[in-house]
Amino acid sequence: MITLGKVTMKDWLTTCFGLGRLPIAPGTWGSLPPVVLYQVLGYLYPAAGPWAMAALIILFSWICVRFSPAVIAATGNSDPGRIVADETAGQALTMLVITLLRPLNICNTAVLGFALFRLFDITKPWPIRKLEKLPLGWGILADDLAAGAFAALIAALCIRWLPAWFG
């Protein structure tokens, strides 16, 4: 197994390159890379946005499902807060839908997508909460993908109905 000091590669990947190890709000930090990438690509190369978000969803979903069981075993916690690959994948799902809508105001839509995802990820309304019960990395991932889908739906409605702010 590859180690980086005392940190294993599995831990490094599931923490989204260490963001999940930050002491305050690790899930929020883990949600930021897709939002930042959305903004950078939105201004510099918008056509790459959907592809980049899809790649993040696939990559971090795989990382979460594949490596979370080892981190769970190492920590003894069924959902260690430092695993944020699920937040990265869920936020990327929200940003994927937003990139496909091609809003003109990239900054406002980034803030909207970020805030909605965090709202659903933290509050975990009924269908999202049920998904946490799936075994191992699947439960960790599924609730965040559902939160991303809920956030994407609400963001799409906001972009459609409030074009002056997001259009």
So what's the overall shape? Answer: globular
Helical fraction? over 70%
Poorly predicted segments: none
Mean pLDDT: 91
Overall description:
With 167 residues, the chain is mainly α. It has one domain (3-166). 74% of the residues lie in helices and 2% in strands. The protein has a two-stranded antiparallel ribbon with strand order 1-2. The longest helix is centred in the middle third of the chain and has 27 residues, at 49-75. The mean pLDDT is 91.
Write the layout of secondary structure elements.
Layout: E1 3-4, E2 7-8, H1 9-14, H2 26-44, H3 49-75, H4 85-101, H5 106-123, H6 126-131, H7 136-161, H8 163-166
Antiparallel strand pairs: 1-2
Helix pairs in contact: 2-3, 2-4, 2-5, 3-4, 3-7, 4-5, 4-7, 5-7
Task: List key phrases describing it.
single chain; 167 residues; mainly alpha; two-stranded antiparallel ribbon; 8 helices
In short:
The protein has 167 residues and is an all-alpha fold. It has eight helices and two strands; from the N terminus they run ββαααααααα. The protein has a two-stranded antiparallel ribbon.
